[in-house]
Amino acid sequence: MTDRVPAAPASPFTGVGIGLRRPHLEEVAALAASPVPFWEVAPENILGQGGTKARQTWTILERDPVITHGLSMSMGGFDPWADEVLGDLAAFLKQTRSPWHSEHLCWTSVGGANTHELLPMPFTKAAVAHTADRVKRLQDRLPVPFLLENISWYAELGEPEMSEHDFLNETLERADCGWLLDINNIYVNSRNHGFDPKAFLEGLPLHRVAQMHIAGHAWDEEDQLIIDTHGAPVVDPVIELFAWVLPKIYDATGRAVPVLLERDNDIPPLADLLAEQRALQAVYDAALAPLLASAETRA
Amino acid sequence: MSAGAERLEKLQAAMADLALEADDTAFRQDPIAFAAGRGLDPGDARAFARWQRRLLTYRALVRYALRAPLPDCFPVSKALLEPEGLWEPCLDAFLEARAVQSPYYRHIHPHFVEWLAESGWGQDRYPFLLSLAHFEYLELEVLRAPEDGPVEGVFDAPAPERTAVFSAAARNLAYPWRVHEATEEAPIPAEGAALLFCHRLPDGRFQQRELEGPESAWITRLQAGEPLGAAAEAVGLPWDEARALAEDLRADGAVLGFA
C-alpha cells in the first residue's frame, strides 16, 4: 500500500449494489432481506411523495443499507439551491443513514430553467474554481461527506484551457471532496475522444475514490458516438477496466470501495439485474482477493 | 462576478438556448453567429462550430429528457392534439418557455399544466385543454400525494358540530367540461360541469366520485374548516345525506376523522 492518506470517506459496506428502481419496488419490499450489499437511491425521486410506491420504498430503506446519489444540484451551475430542498435532502440523508451523498461534475440548470440532463462543464480555470466553491458550500449544508462523479461528455463547451484529465484532477483537489469514480464514463469518454483509459486513470487522485459506478451504454450509429444510456448490460472492456482499477483504488485508499451497477433505462426483471450484479461481484472479489488476503496476513 | 464566471454562465445560457428553443435553424446554419449573438467570445464561438454535431446531440438529449414523461401522463391531450399536428408544437412551446424550474423530475407534469394555465397555449382552439390536462395529471398527483401523519383527538363518526379532517391526497374539483369522460378514442369532452372528488384509497388506489352541486359546495366549506352541520345547512344539503357522504368519505380514507 502507498503512504498516501485516503481523502475519501470510509464506507460501512463493500461489494456491488444496484440502483433501486420503481419496477422492482414491490418485489424487493416483499423480500425478507436485501439481496445486495446496498441499494443506491436518488432522494429527488422519493422526497415528498406518498402512496403505494413510496410505502414500498420506505420499507426497503428502513430495512437495507442505502447510499444516496443526487441528480439535480447543478454543481457547476449558478442557480441557487432552495433552502427547503437542502433541508429535505439533509433530513433524508440522516434518515437513510447514507454514508455520503454524491452529485455529478456537470451543470443541469441555468437562469432557473432545469434541463434534467447532465451537461458538460467548460474545461477552464474559472469552471474549476466555481464548481469547487459550490461543492464546499453544499458540503457545509449536508450532514454527510460529499462526492463528485465524473461524467460522460460528448462536446466541449467553449474553448478549453486544460484537458478533461486536468479539469477533473484540479476540481477534486480544489473542492477537497471524495470522488465517485464512474468507470463506464471513463471508458465512454476514452472511446469518444480517443485516449487510453488506463493512462488517464493513472494520473488521477484515486485516493479520493469512495465509491464507483459501473453501467452499460449504447452506440449511436448516426452520430458515431457512445451514449451513456445506462440501458444495457455492462460490456466486457468496461469490466476489464473495472477489474484493473479496483486494486489500484485499494492500494490508494486501503479500502475495498462499494460499487454500484447502474440501470436506468430498459430496466430488466430484478432476477436478470441480480444475475449481472452477481457476475460483477465475482469480478470484484477476484480482483481484490490477493490484496485482502495480504492485509489479513499483515493483521 | 469574475470575468471567468461570467464567461461560464454565458456558455451555459447559450447551450440552454440551443437545447430549449424550438427552432435550431440558426445554429445549424451558422453556429459561430449563433454563439456570438449570445455574447460568447470568438474562441468559444469557434468551439460551438467545431462541436456543432455533438452539441446537437445534447439538444436531442435535453429535449428527450424533458418530453419523455409527458405522453404517459397526458394520453388524452396527446390524442387530441396529435392528429392535428399540434402535439409536437405544444411540447416545443412548453420547452421554449423554460417552464421546468424544479430540480425534481416528477414536477415536469405539474409544470406542464401550470404552463398551459399561464400561456393559454392552444386554448383559443380547444378551450377545454387546460381542464383536460389538469384532470389527466390529477390521478398521478393524488397517487403520489404525501402520506398523512397521525391524527389525534378525532372521532370516527360525523356530527353536526364537528369539522372534517381531510387526507392530504383529497381533491375537490369543479371543471366546466366533462373531462373525466374524455378518452383517447374520443378526446373532446362534452360541455357541462363536472364536480369531482378524488382521493387515494387506503390500499393506495385512485378513487374518483362525481358529486351533485350541494355535495361539492358542502365539501368546499368543510375543507375551509366549517362544521359539518352549518356547512350542510348553508348549501341546502339535508343532514342525513351529508352524514352518509361523510361516513363514506371516512370509510374510504378521504376524511381521516372528525374533530
Task: Kindly provide the radius of gyration of chain B, computed on alpha-carbon positions and rounded to a whole number of angstroms.
Answer: 24 Å
Derived from helix and strand composition plus strand pairing, the structural class of chain A reads alpha/beta
Strand residues, percent of chain A: 15-25%
Order of helices and strands of chain B: HHHHHHHHHHEEEEHHHE
Series of H and E elements of chain A:
EHEHEHEEEHEHEHHEEEHEH
Q: Largest interface: which pair? A: A-B, 50 and 52 residues
> Roughly what percent helix of chain B?
40-55%
Give the overall pLDDT of chain B as a whole number: 97
Unreliable stretches of chain A: none
Which keywords apply here?
heterodimer, A: 299 residues, alpha/beta, eight-stranded parallel beta barrel, two-stranded antiparallel ribbon, 9 helices, 41% helix, globular, B: 259 residues, mainly alpha, three-stranded antiparallel β-sheet, 13 helices, 52% helix
What would you note in describing this structure?
The complex is a heterodimer of chains A (299) and B (259). Chain A has helices spanning 25-29, 52-63, 83-96, 125-141, 164-175, 183-193, 197-202, 236-253, 270-298, and strands spanning 16-19, 39-41, 66-69, 101-104, 107-110, 113-119, 146-149, 178-182, 209-215, 218-220, 225-227, 259-262. By secondary structure, chain A is α/β, with parallel strands linked by helices. Chain A has an eight-stranded parallel barrel, surrounded by four helices. A two-stranded antiparallel ribbon of chain A has the order 5-6. In chain A, α4 (125-141) packs parallel to α5 and α8 (236-253) packs parallel to α9. The longest helix of chain A is centred in the C-terminal third of the chain and has 29 residues, at 270-298. The mean pLDDT of chain A is 94. With 259 residues, chain B is mainly alpha-helical. Chain B is elongated and about 75 Å long. Chain B starts with a helix and ends with a strand. Classes of the chains: A alpha/beta (299), B mainly alpha (259). At the A-B interface, α2, β5, β6 and α4 of A face α1, α4 and α5 of B.
